[in-house]
Each structure stands twice: as C-alpha cells, then as structure tokens.
Specification:
Layout lengths: L1 H22 L5 H17 L1 H9 L6 H45 L1
Helix pairs in contact: 1-2, 2-4, 3-4
Length: 107
C-alpha cells in the first residue's frame, strides 16, 4: 500500500526537479522526464492499488472507486504517459545531437 503512495509522491517531486532543469535548458531533464513517465505508466496500470491504499480506513469504498477510475481513466492515462515517455526520449536524443553539432561548429 505504502509503495504506491511513495511512488506517487516521488514522481511528483522528480517532476518538479525535471521542470526546473528544463527551464534552465539542462539536458539532464530528459532522462528524468522519461523515468517519471515510465513510473506514471506503472501507477496508472496499478491505479486500483493506489486508490485502495488512499481510501483504506477512511469510510470510502476504495474498490468501487478504483474500479470506476480504472475503467474510465487508467488506460488512456497510461497510454498518454507512454507517449510522453517516447517524446522525452526523442527530446533527449535531439538535444544530444544538437549539443554534438554545437561542439563540432565551435571547434
């Protein structure tokens, strides 16, 4: 139970760091985004466990909520984050290529 909420919190924290690095135009932002997006795919594919852990002991029917969320949003969200993973990998490659070209032109 705790691992899902810990992963959710960690992905949020790393997302903030990646966004700051992106705003500073540091290439290190891309592997962070790729890793965060892979983690989000895992979270959405296991959404029932996450919702169950968040609602446990709070008077909510976590299983019913999780079932509804899984059917309505989990798969489309997982696909979205898989696409964002591909975009992050593409960005990483493009920035690395641009950096190599800049170094070649500077020499």
């Amino acid at each position: 139970q705790g691992s899902a909420t810990t992963l959710d919190a960690a992905t949020t924290a790393v997302s903030v760091v990646a966004q700051v690095l992106l705003s500073w135009k540091w290439a290190e932002n891309w592997p962070l985004w790729a890793g965060v997006n892979v983690a989000y795919v895992a979270l959405f594919l296991n959404l029932d466990k996450l919702v169950g852990s968040l609602t446990s002991g709070r008077g909510f029917d976590g299983a019913a909520i999780a079932s509804h969320l899984s059917r309505q949003t989990a798969w489309p969200s997982a696909v979205l984050y898989a696409l964002l993973t591909a975009i992050a990998i593409w960005g990483w490659i493009a920035w690395a290529r641009a950096a190599r070209e800049d170094r070649a032109h500077a020499a």
